[in-house]
From TrEMBL:
Cofactor (UniProt): heme c
Protein name as catalogued: Cbb3-type cytochrome c oxidase subunit
A GO biological-process term: oxidative phosphorylation
Natural source organism: Reinekea blandensis MED297
Annotated binding of heme c 1, by residue: C137, C140, H141, M272
Metabolic or biological pathway: Energy metabolism; oxidative phosphorylation
Amino acid sequence: MSTFWSAYIFALTGITILGLVALIFLTRRMPGSSDPEETTGHSFDGIEEYNKPMPKWWLNMFWITIFFGIGYLAWYGIGNYKGLGNWSSAGQLAAETAAHEERYGEIFERFAQIPVEELKDNPQAVRMGQQIFINNCALCHGQTAQGYYGFPNLTDDDWLYGGSGEQIKTSLIQGRRGQMPAWKDTLGSTGVAAVTEYVLELSGNEHNAELAANGEVIYSQMCSACHGPDGTGNIALGAPNLTDNIWLYDNPELDLKQDITLTLNNGRAGNMPAWEDILGSEKVHLLAGYVYSLSHGAR
């Protein structure tokens, strides 16, 4: 923190404390006689305010709060002043991290030597990986890892970037950024409708055969480079398999035809952060083992 901001916080806090002390003195009792029936002169709707001091218990609690605040600041510090206790949030985090590493470091190192595919057979490794998942991944993929709209289900055998142990680990280390362009302006509504019918045909759903035939021509020209000539996808690009009837953007309020049309019209953009710098390589290894176990069955 710069000297300016440190001084600013000092001054603002000091003025606030002095203001509270002044507030107590200025509002204890208005100047005047000691007549218990004396009023302050304030009147509202026929009700007059007596010139009475604040209750002692209230004043005492106010003073205690002020002194506690001063003591707290003296011990824990304010601005660049570290306080009598020499405490800082960064220092506490460093100490807790060091204690954690001392306690669990050997365990993480031991599991890091085991291939990802074999971790699923170790109950302790699976439990630790599950805890890492719940703390960091469940917000998007769900507590049970079955995903949400736009977030993949990790319990099936459908993988955008491959489902081997190393492929899962690579996804966690590097993160993933999926991008499909919007085709509405390029294909027009007629072209989008035709490709939609062809995608429905690829996945074995009810479709218009005549439109699907036209859509196949457009697909081979515009879509096959990513999704493959047969629509089975490309894990190098993260392009999904269009033949397995598993849909990442499946809105329960829309039917499948509307979902596909919406995707073609507007495109899609998905992003998963890289986790190695956040969790460290050993925790990523355990996490990969847990994710692998979800679709391959832990013993």
